[in-house]
Amino acid sequence: MAYFEHDGCNLHYEEYGHGTPLLLVHGLGSSTLDWEMQIPALAAHYRVIVPDIRGHGRSDKPRERYSIAGFSADLVALIEHLNLGPVHYIGLSMGGMIGFQLGVDQPQLLKSLTIVNSAPEVKLRSRDDYWQWFKRWSLMRVLSLATIGKALGSKLFPKPEQAALRQKMAERWAKNDKRAYLASFDAIVGWGVQERLSRVTCPTLIVSADRDYTPVTLKETYVKLLPDARLVVIADSRHATPLDQPERFNQTLLEFLAAADIHPQDH
User: Fold this and answer.
1) Exposed, middle or buried: residue 123 (CB in 10 Å: 0-12, 13-18, 19+)?
2) Helix and strand tally (H, E) in the chain?
3) Which of 66, 84, 136, 228 has its CA 20 to 30 A from that of 146?
4) Is residue 264 very low, low, confident or very high in pLDDT (cuts 50, 70, 90)?
5) What's the distance, CA 113 to chain centroid?
6) Around Cβ 156, how many Cβ atoms within 10 Å?
């Protein structure tokens, strides 16, 4: 367990294994624990660095507005703090958004980019978009984190044999700091870098669950905007693909990383 300071905030990260550096970045309301099924498989081949984003896990939760650009700046500071040079970046959901931000702002820092069940923008356009957002925003303010965790667990892991995952999800979610969680949710809404995706020059893997919150067609649309990207759809999976389909996910990821290591982009 290690910490470093950036912008007045103590940020927690963990390190495993040796080799080319690889960053695993979790989603909204989660922590390093998102990656428990990946760390052993990846640490056999890479130097794996797993941070808790500001406002999450064991990192500080400053009382301030959060932003995706701010989260990205924290990770740039971590890369510099550990003197990593270009990294393989893997981000889930909000972690994927932070990856897109990093990729358009600091493309030279990425050896490869893997985006899991995410998007390069979260814009409210239609009346229905605003209504859905308002509903979620209101519910999150009214309900306890334990209640939200239970509901999420049932949605993400609906099968009878996934009871342990549901339980884990509910327990972990309840430990969130509510104010920091809401500030992070607010950071996502209205954010976007889609018009700058051509700057992401490294090999890019887009992973989509077949039953993610947003349809596969959304990922097909933005994958075309990335210079060197491909899309892999993982069957019988929902939003938490690294947890509900770990073997398939790890195999897909390791194959992509091995290819990216052999054929880095030619500058």
Assistant:
1) exposed
2) 10, 8
3) 66
4) low
5) 11
6) 21
Where exactly are the structural domains of the chain? 2-122+192-262
Residue 120 identity:
P
Query: Judging by DSSP bridges, how do beta strands 9-16 and 47-51 pair with one another?
Result: antiparallel
Contact 9, 71 (CB under 8 A): no
Q: What gap in Å lies between CA 14 and CA 32, rounded to an integer?
A: 8
CA 21 – CA 112 distance, rounded (Å): 11
Q: What pTM, to 2 d.p., does this model score?
A: 0.96
Chain Cα centroid distance, residue 152: 17
Alpha helical stretches, state H, the chain: 39-43, 68-81, 94-105, 127-142, 145-156, 163-174, 178-188, 216-223, 241-244, 246-262
Residue 43: Cβ within 10 Å count: 17
User: Residue 66 in contact with residue 54, Cβ under 8 Å?
Assistant: yes
Q: If DSSP codes are grouped into helix, strand and coil, which group holds residue 221?
A: helix
CA pair distance 238, 217, nearest whole angstrom: 15
Q: Which CATH topology does 2-122+192-262 take?
A: Rossmann fold (3.40.50)
Residue 224 makes CB contacts below 8 A (sequence gap 6+) with none
Q: Give pLDDT tens digits for 147-175.
A: 999 999 999 999 999 999 999 999 999 99
